[in-house]
Amino acid sequence: MSKLLDPKVLMAIKELSLAAKTTIDGFMSGINKSTIKGQGLEFSQYRSYQPGDDLRSLDWKMFARSDRYYIRESEIETNISIRFLVDASASMNHKDGDFTKIDYARYLAASLAYLGNLQGDAIGLYVINEAGIFSMAAKQDYQHLARLFYQLEQIKPDKTFITPIHYKELYAGAQKRELLVFITDMYETNEEIFSFLDTLNTLKHEVVVFHLMSPNELELNFKGYSTFEDLETGRSVQIDQDKARAVYKARLQEYLEATRIKLLDRRIFYRMIRTDQPLDAALRDFLNQRNKLNV
């Protein structure tokens, strides 16, 4: 077991589905099975024989009992490919209390990857910053999951977010649509994150965005500080927190609402998470909401 996995978190989410009932390219339903009928493993229903049906699907025991031809249908189990995208730009080093944003991102990705692997899904990883995209193919086995945990542990946030010149990595794996779980602080200077998300949308992936924010960001409560430095650009600014707090919080709420709407318009599932929120509670709330929306 990776040190990134907390038994309390796993107990809270183990009975929930990450993928839920997605609708593209045979993604699984909330219980890891599609609604596609065929020669699967688990019995679903009988239906009357129709001309053109595969005779191998006839149930001869039913014929012997009823003297009628029936096709035995099963639900075909279909696994999906889930890729975790982790923002590794320098702003993810922001710290409040004992955790940086990248710490929270590691635990979040590890827990969901464990859940997906437990449900039989292929798990992959992108680590993203100005240097490019580290790509780890999606596979379904425990050794691969262990390698993914190792790569999460090695992430060292640096510089700014990715530029379009590196998007070729995204297109390289575009043959199969995936469920993409993007973990980020949404820090950008020139709409680079939204440009990135628009690229993911053109590839017809389903995208979930976890927006990480720390309590001191949300409340503008950096005790003892009056000078603030941008972790990505190095620029600094002096702020009287007490005087600026009311205006800051109002503008922050406007920004968060605008972000939510912009992602909703792109049909991207958005969830803002405070880094002081217990991970088990945050994940259980998210997974319950996701399952309800996709029923």
Automatic annotation (TrEMBL):
Pfam families: DUF58. InterPro entries: DUF58, vWFA_dom_sf. SUPFAM superfamilies: vWA-like. Residues 45-251 form the DUF58 domain. PANTHER family: BLL2464 PROTEIN, DUF58 DOMAIN-CONTAINING PROTEIN. This is Uncharacterized protein DUF58. It comes from Pedobacter metabolipauper.
